[in-house]
Design a protein that fits this description.
CATH architecture: 3-Layer(aba) Sandwich
Helix content: 40-55%
Shape: globular
Pfam family, one: Creatininase
Order of helices and strands: HEHHEHEHEHHEH
Strand order of the largest sheet: 1-2-3
CATH topology: Rossmann fold
GO biological process, one term: riboflavin biosynthetic process
Family: Belongs to the creatininase superfamily.
Keywords: Hydrolase, Metal-binding, Zinc
Oligomer: single chain
GO molecular function: hydrolase activity, acting on carbon-nitrogen (but not peptide) bonds, in linear amides; metal ion binding
Largest sheet: 3 strands, parallel
Radius of gyration: 18 Å
CATH superfamily: Creatininase
């Protein structure tokens, strides 16, 4: 149940029935030949599919996150840490005012991990709140499904290549990309990191069969739904 399909009366009624909601967060950053919006697309979609049977509202995805290492790639948007935390603090305050005190933050971008600490801080400030921070792709069962498919799963390779993150005009290259020296990449600024990464993928196969990806996806949706169902404080 998307907030975009609701009016304020709908939200008021929903919060009175059930204090749960989902706030998805992502990033707008290079993903090789895939959409720049991979992380936000996946975070929102997995949230909507997980929440729909439960009738739990899903807020619009936060499209920007922390991605300074990709700043040399056109199209990437990177917030400062303090900016992201300030925005998320205001978002959570707003959903709390609406009556939602059980908030599942579904994260689609590893760089956004500082929000996890913010969630703890907010619960200390507001004892009536229970907030969970859920990295959907690295949750235990989902990550196990990824590893069972191919241990190379990583940024901008097959692991993020779903039918809904592809661009029709930019098909995946055939074969596999050699592993990238991640230590060298992380020790450099954005321009040098682009030299190391090239197209932007961290290495490994660019694409896997859709049936394998669908199985991983269904595991991810189920795990988000489990997090939504509880337990809550």
């Amino acid at each position: 149940m998307k907030i975009s399909d609701m009016n304020w009366r709908d939200v008021e009624a929903a919060a009175a029935r059930d204090p749960r909601c989902i706030v998805p967060i992502g990033s707008t950053e290079q993903h090789a030949q895939l959409s720049l919006c991979v992380d936000m697309i996946l975070a929102e979609r997995v949230s909507v599919e997980a929440a729909e049977p439960l009738g739990v509202p899903v807020y619009p995805v936060m499209p920007f996150g922390l991605a300074p290492y990709f700043n040399a790639y056109p199209g990437t948007v990177s917030l400062r840490v303090e900016t992201l935390l300030a925005v998320m603090r205001d978002v959570i305050a707003s959903v709390r005012r609406a009556g939602f005190t059980r908030v599942l933050i579904v994260n689609g971008h590893g760089g956004n991990d500082p929000v996890r600490a913010l969630a703890q801080e907010l619960m200390a400030e507001h004892p009536d709140m229970s907030i969970k921070f859920h990295n959907w792709w690295s949750a235990p069962r989902t990550w196990a499904a990824v590893q069972a498919t191919d241990t190379s799963g990583s940024h901008a390779n097959w692991m993020e290549n779903f039918p809904w993150t592809r661009l029709p005009h930019a098909p995946a290259p055939a074969g596999e990309k050699p592993p990238v020296d991640m230590t060298a990449m992380k020790a450099r600024g954005p321009a040098a990191a682009r030299e190391v990464l090239g197209d932007g993928s961290f290495g490994g196969a660019w694409q896997k069969p859709d049936a394998e990806m669908q199985a991983i996806w269904e595991t991810g949706v189920a795990e988000v739904r489990d997090a939504l169902e509880g337990p809550w404080a």
